[in-house]
Amino acid sequence: MTMKGGYRLSIVTIATLALIICAWSSPALAKKAYLAYGGGPVGGTFNYFANAMASYISKSYDDIEVSSEGSGGSTANLKRLDKGDVDFGIVYSGDAYLGRHGRLPEDGNKYTNVRAISYLYGAPAHLVVKKGAGYKSAMDLAGKRVAIGNAGSGAAAAAERFFRHIGIWDKIKRQNMGYSAAASAFNDGKLDAFWVFVGYPNSSVIEAAARDEIQLLNVHDDAVQTGFYDVYPFYSPVQIPAGTYRGQDGPTKSFQDAAYWCTNNVLSEDLVYRAVSCIYSPEGLNHMVAAKKTASSMTIVDGLKGVAIPVHPGAAKFWQEKGLKVPTPE
Question: pTM for the complete prediction?
């Protein structure tokens, strides 16, 4: 090899080493983080939120890519987060609380690895029946065919708590199915009622109301009369406003849980901090509202509203910078 050839080889080697060093030191060229976000059943609010958040975070950072995945819903996301099968997920505050303390229905496991990031929206119970069918209360559904949500979903878990508490869980003919499938079966006369536990307006209830005259049953009064709120303090009263759905002439009394953006205790503080900073920027919040009007409840002020489990350090850093006091639930 000539001196000239050796000189050229040295230049190439040095240049290659320089590129490697830059890749190690530059965030833009660093190894890309691929994160999975657990959403929910097709047609549910969880999916709208997960899709919108995943796409916006991915668009905002060159070194982070988030993919939204369908799931059974809240309790399924809780368990997958705890195992580290997904990195983000939407979980109802009640499921997160009960799961942490080993109090989920027929499940004594404690899911202690899940951490809260932020409050997303309140999810009211919708108990849909056909107008004129004569049902005045959830109690009237004993012996009737009722869709309660996908197995493993937050909707199904909330349905079991409610119907079991008021004493008709073993009296209704329960069917596990997603919201869109339930609305279709309801319109086809295969169901007497279906239960939806999401923010309003919900596309599946809109779909049902387009084909039949519907009525939303008042489940708040049943809850009050049976002491439901005393046993499950993470639920709170709410009204679904008149006109939310076709034929809904007046407001409907119900109760709600809080849907929470969650992660686990494995994801790094930096990744969570960057993700929450991105979504809760003015541009990020505008993106969320454009994707789903329910996201108008996402605000800095209410960022930790109703939190029932420990907050991830990356999220805690963000909220403290915004002036919020970060609770430390047991």
Answer: 0.71
